[in-house]
Design a protein that fits this description.
CATH architecture of chain B: Orthogonal Bundle
CATH class of chain B: Mainly Alpha
Number of helices of chain A: 15
CATH topology of chain A: MetI-like fold
CATH architecture of chain A: Orthogonal Bundle
CATH topology of chain B: MetI-like fold
Largest interface: A-B, 95 and 103 residues
Distance between the termini of chain A: 30 Å
CATH superfamily of chain B: MetI-like
Structural class of chain B: mainly alpha
Largest sheet of chain B: none
Structural class of chain A: mainly alpha
Distance between the termini of chain B: 54 Å
Oligomer: heterodimer
Number of strands of chain B: 0
Shape of chain A: globular
Number of helices of chain B: 14
Shape of chain B: flat
CATH class of chain A: Mainly Alpha
Strand content of chain A: under 5%
Order of helices and strands of chain A: HHHEEHHHHHHHHHHHH
CATH superfamily of chain A: MetI-like
Radius of gyration of chain B: 23 Å
Strand order of the largest sheet of chain A: 1-2
């Protein structure tokens, strides 16, 4: 993402590049093979999807052009509308919780202590482990009678829960897994941010007798804000299209209580084989992700503007 | 007084670290515990943490089955081929894009990053059907490129941007061709970057599940898909299931602990994830 923000070479570089124009094209042979691959597996699927979304097409029956009617069908499809709500709730929780916990963990990991690398390696295990494998163990842990989670609750005197087996608790339970899994990524990004902060503000704050909390709140937090934003953005993009965990633990159930857009898309495409309609869902889904990313960007710019206004 | 405070701070740090690391560690310890117990212990309440009798038979049952070796080979082939091919095209591409300063090309990678994996599946599934490739490993090898190629390109652009240009310039002045400069100057320096790209591509390809459930048949399943299919068949024998799950994810866990430096570098630089 940083590469994109640097887009557009500086003016002096441009002048230098103009002089070296003769040798520029010679880098193309390095790029062409990858370009062919990207065209085949990323660009082609996208164009084909847009074309399919304009057709009534069930696998086995030849497609017929229907214009935008697949898209018009979407707002009236209650299962789709519900899936959108589930996705938004799931995503909001799966951004906020990992960002909060990940930031706190990063502050702890920013300290110097023995075996730091090894402990960091252990800490990031959840995000690297095979999602289906951990989903399977979580399913056992959620078991209402034999699961370890209800046993742990009983130890602190709380009543047993139905976890993923009840419509009211299924999404929070899945968010718990998602948070467990992806807090480490937020930690790593924020840790990178903390490492980039110069030492001077800390030194002067310590001399002035600031408390640990004050240092975190007024020095670290504002300086790592850009990294929190990047982490939130990445978390949003991943949470919105979360699939493995939900599919392996609940398959969208009980009923359709945890059916997100991605899960519904799977059913439409590969259970009902309604590829035209599924393609329309893909396009709308992508637009939703871009819109959410835009909203996050907006949020950041507006708070940034307020900060600048406040200090002026 | 100050020594006391420092001592207190150290205790606090140790406690905070314990709190932070324990959810991850305890989970995998519990996974291990489930996998070495007999069904009597797995079905008892309150739960048994360390059993009196270990049941290593859970592992033997998984490893001995003929299907397991098929699925393991499938996983190796799909991950190996898609990673190797991604390095083959992605490393030169990262080099070219970095030297051309073609940052706008990264937008395509970004789109690939944002698009849900399922959306590639619909068109490519139809294409594979039309090409009559379903039933072989080819569809999975090809579609795993969706995961591996962007990771490799993204990490290599970042890496080549940080390597010094001076050596390359002087080699060019000495009459080396662009290819020779890449092969003998840029590539050797970039070895750590290639290692990072390789490790992350392997992990995210190995872990991938969504492509397999749609494209894999009975004989072409990769390990994550095979484990998922076990759930639906014998829901209640937890021991063998946990053993299978641990076997599937063990290579990745070991890689993570031993190569955590490279993984952390790659993830914080690109923050890429497949699927």
């Amino acid at each position: 993402m940083s590469a994109i923000s640097q887009a557009g070479p500086a003016a002096s570089e441009k002048a230098a590049a103009a002089g070296a124009e003769w040798r520029r094209p010679s880098y193309w042979p390095f790029v062409v093979p990858a370009l062919v691959v990207v065209l085949a597996i990323i660009i082609f699927p996208w164009l084909f999807t847009i074309w399919m979304s304009l057709h009534e097409w069930k696998v086995g029956v030849p497609p017929t052009f229907v214009g935008l009617s697949n898209y018009i069908r979407l707002p009236g499809d209650t299962r789709f509308v519900e899936a959108v709500w589930h996705t938004l709730v799931y995503t909001a929780l799966s951004v906020v919780l990992p960002v909060v916990f990940g930031t706190l963990a990063a502050v702890v990991f920013h300290a110097k202590f023995p075996m730091r690398g090894f402990l960091r390696g252990l800490f990031i295990l959840p995000m690297m482990a095979t999602p289906v494998a951990i989903a399977l163990v979580w399913t056992m842990m959620f078991h209402p009678q034999l699961g370890i989670l209800n046993y742990l609750l009983s130890l602190v005197g709380l009543p047993p829960q139905l976890w993923v087996f009840h419509p009211a608790t299924v999404i929070p339970s899945l968010v718990m897994v998602e948070t467990w899994q992806w807090t480490p990524l937020v930690m790593l990004i924020v840790l990178g941010g903390l490492a980039a902060i110069p030492a001077e503000p800390y030194e002067s704050a310590l001399i002035d007798g600031a408390t640990r909390w004050q240092i975190f709140r007024y020095i670290s937090l504002p300086l790592v804000m850009p990294f929190l934003f990047i982490a939130s953005m990445i978390r949003m993009i991943d949470a919105v299209k979360s699939f493995d965990i939900i599919f392996a633990i609940t398959q969208g159930g009980p009923g359709s209580a945890s059916e997100t857009i991605n899960l519904y898309l799977y059913s439409v495409a590969f259970v009902y084989y309604d590829v035209g309609y599924a393609s329309a869902i893909v396009v709308v889904f992508f637009a939703l992700i871009v819109a959410l990313a835009g909203a996050l960007l907006r949020l950041r710019q507006s708070t940034h503007w307020n900060d600048a206004g406040g200090s002026a | 007084m100050s020594r006391f405070r420092r001592w207190l701070g150290r205790i606090g740090l140790a406690f905070a670290l314990f709190l932070i690391v324990s959810p991850a560690v305890l989970f995998f310890v519990w996974m291990l515990s489930l996998s070495v117990k007999f069904e009597v212990d797995n079905a008892s309440y309150p739960p048994v943490f360390i059993p009196e009798h270990f049941n290593w038979g859970n592992y033997a049952a998984v490893l001995d089955s003929k299907r397991f070796s098929t699925y393991f080979t499938n996983s190796l082939i799909v991950t190996g081929a898609s990673t190797a091919f991604a390095l083959l095209v992605g490393v030169p591409a990262g080099y070219g894009l970095a030297r051309m300063r073609a940052h706008k090309a990264a937008v395509v990678i970004l789109i690939a990053r944002i698009t849900p994996g399922l959306s590639y599946l619909i068109p490519l599934f139809l294409l594979f059907q039309w090409l009559d490739l379903l039933g072989t490993l080819w569809p999975q090898i090809i579609i795993h490129l969706v995961v591996t190629v962007p990771i490799v390109i993204w990490i290599m652009i970042g890496y080549f941007e940080t390597t010094p240009m001076e050596l390359e310039e002087s080699a060019l002045i000495d009459g080396a061709t662009r290819w020779q400069v890449f092969r003998y100057v840029a590539l050797p320096i970039a070895r750590p970057g290639i290692a990072v790209a390789f490790i992350l591509a392997v992990i995210f390809s190995w872990n991938n599940f969504v492509f397999g459930i749609v494209l894999a048949g009975r004989e072409t399943r990769t390990l994550p898909v095979a484990v998922y299919n076990m759930i639906s068949f014998d829901q209640l024998s937890w021991g063998p299931l946990a053993a299978a799950a641990l076997i599937v994810t063990l290579p990745v866990l070991l890689l993570t602990v031993f190569a955590q430096r490279q993984i952390v570098a790659g993830l914080t630089a690109g923050a890429v994830k497949g699927g």
